[in-house]
């Protein structure tokens, strides 16, 4: 469906700036789609600009023209709230979760206690908006136990809790009730993998189903990754994922406690160690240091912290030095994601001698 309207024709290079100005001047017609014509854009506007508005536009671009043409009408996509307006009491709409974890074709949300009796309706609304989702789960309690898993309640949809997730060109098979996996660490996995150099040996101490290990192997031709996990289910899926991503000659799965595996097989082997176990990574610092080669290596350390980044770094440096190693340089410290009010998952990258 199209609609005839007035538009501003400009060179594409000025598009982003002009759209911001038109939006600020309340001239932008948001109901119509911007037209592309070779090196030009025609941006729909709601009315002819007055002299002052023309001056404002000319401050950014001198060469523009006003033309009337047919624009494609944008179809309004319904939101989750749109589907719930007639179902939930108005005062509860602001409690509906605005974010969720999308793992393959499964959506996972945190459902406030006040909304528990509306769980099915919320789940169905999510499935209406996200057509590729077949199952909606609500978290029950925190991640816990040696295997770092949590319980879930089915809100809507059907089928089992096993899924296939795609990320950075890799595919991961997993069961969300049997292994730990967070799509919110997608950028962090890419960030670490991007630092690896050709020829490195990497030790992924808490590998899970392999999102760090496999991405590293896919991004680099000549690497070797030892992927360790204590959860037998994680190792089962890790082996499946290694094969699915065709990295059998680069990623080597090992079942067991990371400290024990390193003590028996991997002392002095690694150029780089990944410690994505924020609940208790500090307890494994000594093992990580033992896994590194004598000359030097990098540790990617993660923990949950309510302190400043500086204080977190100091604690990591102190633990490394107690293990008999020396920190040559803190490469980077960053907050990865919020896990509670004033509490974050923090990444500390250190170069260790």
Describe it:
The chain is of the alpha/beta class. The protein folds into three domains: 71 residues, Alpha-Beta Plaits (2-Layer Sandwich); 81 residues, 2-Layer Sandwich (GMP Synthetase, Chain A, domain 3); 172 residues, Vaccinia Virus protein VP39 (Rossmann fold). 27% of the residues lie in helices and 33% in strands. The strands form four sheets. Strands 13-12-11-14-15-17-16 form a seven-stranded mixed beta sheet, sandwiched between helices. Strand 6, helix 4 and strand 7 form a beta-alpha-beta unit. The model has no long low-confidence stretch (mean pLDDT 93).
How many distinct beta strands?
A: 17
Percent of sequence in beta strands: 25-35%
At CATH level 2, the architecture of the largest domain is 3-Layer(aba) Sandwich
Q: How helix-rich are the residues, as a percent range?
A: 25-40%
Which topology of the largest domain does CATH recognise? Rossmann fold
Q: Which regions contain 5 or more consecutive residues with pLDDT less than 50? A: none
Strand order of the largest sheet: 13-12-11-14-15-17-16
Mind summarizing the main beta sheet? 7 strands, mixed
Rg result? 26 Å
Overall mean pLDDT stands at 93
């Amino acid at each position: 469906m199209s609609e005839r309207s007035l538009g501003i024709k400009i060179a594409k290079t000025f598009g982003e700036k002009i759209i911001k100005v038109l939006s600020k001047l309340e001239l932008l017609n948001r109901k119509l789609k911007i037209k592309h014509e070779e090196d030009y854009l025609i941006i729909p506007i709601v009315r002819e600009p007055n002299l002052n508005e023309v001056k404002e536009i000319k401050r950014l671009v001198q060469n523009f023209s006003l033309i009337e043409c047919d624009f494609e009408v944008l179809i309004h996509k319904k939101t989750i709230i749109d589907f719930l307006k007639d179902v939930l009491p108005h005062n509860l709409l602001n409690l509906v979760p605005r974010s969720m974890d999308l793992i393959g074709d499964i959506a996972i949300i945190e459902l406030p206690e006040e909304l528990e009796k509306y769980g099915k309706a919320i789940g169905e609304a999510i499935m209406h908006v996200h057509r590729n989702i077949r199952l909606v789960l609500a978290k029950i309690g925190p991640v816990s136990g040696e295997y770092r898993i949590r319980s879930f309640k089915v809100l809507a949809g059907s089928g089992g809790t096993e899924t296939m997730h795609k990320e950075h060109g890799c595919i991961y098979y997993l069961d969300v009730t049997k292994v730990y996996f967070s799509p919110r660490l997608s950028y962090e996995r890419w960030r670490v993998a991007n630092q690896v150099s050709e020829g490195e040996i990497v030790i992924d101490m808490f590998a899970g189903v392999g999102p760090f290990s496999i991405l590293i192997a896919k991004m680099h031709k000549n690497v070797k990754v030892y992927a360790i996990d204590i959860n037998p289910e994680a190792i089962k899926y890790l082996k499946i994922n290694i094969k699915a991503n065709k990295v059998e000659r680069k990623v080597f799965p090992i079942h067991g406690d990371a400290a024990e595996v390193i003590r028996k097989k991997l002392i002095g082997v690694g150029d780089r160690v990944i410690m994505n176990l924020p609940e208790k990574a500090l307890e494994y610092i000594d093992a990580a240091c033992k896994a590194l080669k004598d000359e030097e290596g990098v540790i990617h350390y993660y923990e949950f912290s309510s302190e400043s980044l500086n204080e977190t770094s100091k604690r990591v440096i102190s633990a490394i030095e107690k293990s008999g190693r020396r920190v040559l340089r803190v490469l980077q410290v960053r907050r990865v994601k919020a896990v509670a009010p004033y509490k974050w998952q923090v990444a500390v990258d250190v170069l260790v001698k």
